[in-house]
């Protein structure tokens, strides 16, 4: 009994109210994704929405040929509950493009579904976990709703700093969450040297590494993975949302059998498997040279748009993160004033604070530079508004100064 009380108290599940006795803690709004929802709460603007981190619909590969190829013949193969959950053709393609040879490689319904399912397997109430700061708001929400204690890790342009990882690991987290490239919101990406340093720091500890390559083929950086060195301790998720379309709802997930097998068993009591029709569409898109060219073209366009905005901002002394992938992280004097200034110019962007596990020394905006116009004058005009917004100081009344 005494051990049970201690365990409950250690995870903050009970509250001692002196002579009144000991009570189970009340939880308010247990799993409302507060941060995730607040990214969309920037003031609305009638002009251009750069708050979403969504791919440009005009740069996604066309689905027409793939859908025709998949649905043109008999659909008898789509009627069974008993087949392998992953199409052998898709698994072969995934394995041939994976940065290492994992024990298990399966599909889930998007990267966020993958994260939620791994967290369910690996993280328990009161466990410590480490993640990048700033990081993906939905991941912070997921971890908080699980009752985990999050240890923030500071980053630079090459991802998590090795000394920050070492400091976090001293606190014995069960899992470390990292994004090897196109990190959301900063666009940071591992270099081979940084990856080597992080692996060296990780090696003596037990923590599982959970990596999300959420941008996949539209990222320009190398596809590097901790899994190439710590295969038995790495879960890796690659989304096809940004490269091939969010509505495919497909991400690939790899990991050791002791994590992925129970995950898939649990999934049988839910969606069961990823629609084989959608899996087949992805197979077609991955093998079709036109789709391949379309994804490569998109990566180049996103990179040019991001580079153009970054260059225009830096020329005026506004600091912006490296921006691999769809987003750029821009330092501003005051988040709220900057959001309002941009909204007044018809430009919607995301506030920086929902991305912060704990407050950072400066304030930021996340701008989905991947959705910028290609026309140089239009882009320069938007960059000009961002420069003005970044410089606005907070007014005493909280309005725009
Ligand atoms: C870091 C990160 N992970 C996961 C996702 C969601 O990916 P999916 O559409 O595959 O669920 C996003 C979407 O923006 C993201 O930025």
From TrEMBL:
Residue span, Aminotransferase class I/classII large domain: 84-381
A Pfam match: Aminotran_1_2
Gene Ontology molecular functions: pyridoxal phosphate binding
PANTHER family: HTH-TYPE TRANSCRIPTIONAL REGULATORY PROTEIN GABR
Name of the protein in its database record: Unannotated protein
């Amino acid at each position: 009994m005494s051990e049970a009380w201690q365990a409950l108290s250690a995870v903050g599940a009970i509250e001692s109210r002196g002579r009144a006795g000991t009570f189970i803690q009340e939880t308010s709004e247990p799993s409302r994704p507060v941060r995730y929802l607040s990214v969309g709460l920037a003031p609305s603007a009638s002009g251009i929405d750069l708050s979403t981190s969504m791919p440009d619909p005009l740069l996604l590969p066309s689905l027409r040929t793939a859908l025709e190829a998949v649905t043109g013949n008999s659909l008898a193969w789509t009627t069974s509950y008993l087949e392998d959950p992953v199409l052998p053709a898709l698994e072969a393609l995934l394995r041939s493009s994976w940065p290492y040879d994992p024990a298990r490689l399966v599909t889930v319904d998007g990267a966020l579904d993958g994260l939620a399912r791994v967290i369910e397997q690996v993280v328990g109430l009161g466990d410590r976990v480490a993640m990048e700061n700033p990081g993906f708001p939905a991941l912070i929400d997921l971890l908080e709703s699980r009752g985990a204690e999050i240890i923030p890790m500071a980053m630079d342009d090459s991802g998590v700093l090795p000394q920050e990882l070492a400091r976090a690991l001293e606190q014995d987290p069960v899992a470390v969450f990292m994004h090897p490239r196109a990190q959301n919101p900063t666009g940071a990406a591992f270099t081979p040297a940084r990856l080597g340093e992080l692996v060296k720091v990780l090696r003596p500890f037990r923590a599982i590494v959970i990596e999300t390559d959420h941008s996949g083929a539209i990222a320009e950086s190398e596809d590097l993975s901790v899994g190439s060195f710590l295969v038995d301790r790495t879960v890796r998720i690659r989304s096809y949302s940004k490269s091939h379309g969010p509505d495919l709802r497909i991400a690939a997930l790899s990991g050791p059998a002791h994590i992925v097998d129970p995950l898939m068993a649990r999934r049988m009591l839910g969606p069961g498997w990823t629609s084989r029709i959608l899996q087949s569409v992805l197979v077609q898109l991955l093998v079709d040279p036109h789709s391949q060219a379309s994804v490569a073209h998109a990566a180049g366009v996103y990179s040019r748009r991001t580079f153009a905005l970054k260059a225009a901002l830096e020329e005026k002394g506004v600091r912006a993160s490296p921006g691999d992938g769809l987003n750029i992280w821009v330092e501003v004097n005051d988040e709220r004033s900057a959001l309002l200034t941009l909204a007044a110019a018809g430009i919607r962007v995301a506030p920086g604070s929902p991305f912060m596990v704990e407050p950072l020394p400066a304030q930021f905006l996340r701008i989905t530079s991947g959705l910028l116009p290609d026309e140089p004058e239009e882009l320069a005009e938007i960059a000009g508004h961002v420069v003005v917004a970044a410089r606005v100081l907070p007014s005493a009344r909280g309005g725009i100064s």
